[in-house]
Amino acid sequence: MSSKKNILPKYWYSKKNEKLSCKEKIILLNENIEEFDRLASEIYDEAILMGVEKKQIQEVLNKVVNNINSTLKNVK
Q: Pick from 29, 48, 66, 74: most CB atoms within 10 A?
């Protein structure tokens, strides 16, 4: 998992550009990112096994990430 750790930043920053200090929040966020990475890899692998062109599935996954919007209300 050491190569996958490179996807995580050394520090997470708040909207005020302050380092997050709550260890529980950091652990949860890191676990969520690692889970997302595993799921994206699974989708990618399955698409390739189905015969999808690698470049196309990469483009689709990039679009998904680049078009993420929060569903939270009243959060800026």
A: 29
Given the structure tokens 């200090």, which residue do they identify?
21
pLDDT 10s digits, 11-51: 999 999 999 999 999 999 999 999 999 999 999 999 999 99
Enter the pTM of the model: 0.79
Q: CA 18 to CA 25: how far, in whole Å?
A: 14
Q: Are 55 and 61 in contact (CB under 8 A)?
A: no
